[in-house]
Amino acid sequence: MSETAVKCDRCKNDFVIGQLKQAPSVNEVECVYFSCPHCQADYTAYYTNQKIRDRQAEINELNKKVHNAQSDKTKERYIKQIESLTRQNKREMEQLRKEIEGDSVVQE
């Protein structure tokens, strides 16, 4: 996994995103976030609900199958499934963010 450098909006220091943390679930929605190591300002990375977490678990299992697949055709099938599940999660995560934070969310 590559390191992502960011600048803190509050203290203006640059830092590399470290360990992601999870806030306690509210109505089955979990907030995954990281903190500035200088001033401890928190930044939301993404939100998940149970459906997203189930897809994430399915993606992890499919990644194992890709690694162990005997044929390129089988690997390709698993990769297509992973890509589809990832797209579904991305759409649902964007919708959750809009519901929680409002329409002023900046699209990445």
Tell me about this structure.
The chain has about 110 residues and is of the alpha+beta class. Helices cover about 45% and strands about 20% of the residues. The protein has helices at about 50-70, 70-100; strands spanning about 5, 15, 20, 30-35, 40-50. The strands form two sheets. It has a three-stranded antiparallel beta sheet. The protein has a two-stranded antiparallel sheet with strand order 1-2. The model has no long low-confidence stretch (mean pLDDT about 90).
Give the overall pLDDT as a whole number. 92
What order do the helices and strands follow?
EEEEEHH
The radius of gyration over CA amounts to: 17 Å
Shape: globular
C-alpha end-to-end distance: 19 Å
Sum up the structure in keywords.
19% strand; alpha+beta; single chain
Topology:
Elements lengths: L4 E3 L6 E3 L4 E2 L7 E6 L6 E7 L1 H19 L3 H30 L7
Antiparallel strand pairs: 1-2, 3-4, 4-5
Helix pairs in contact: 1-2
Describe, in short, the structure shown.
The protein is of the alpha+beta class and 108 residues long. It has 2 helices and 5 strands. α1 runs antiparallel to α2.
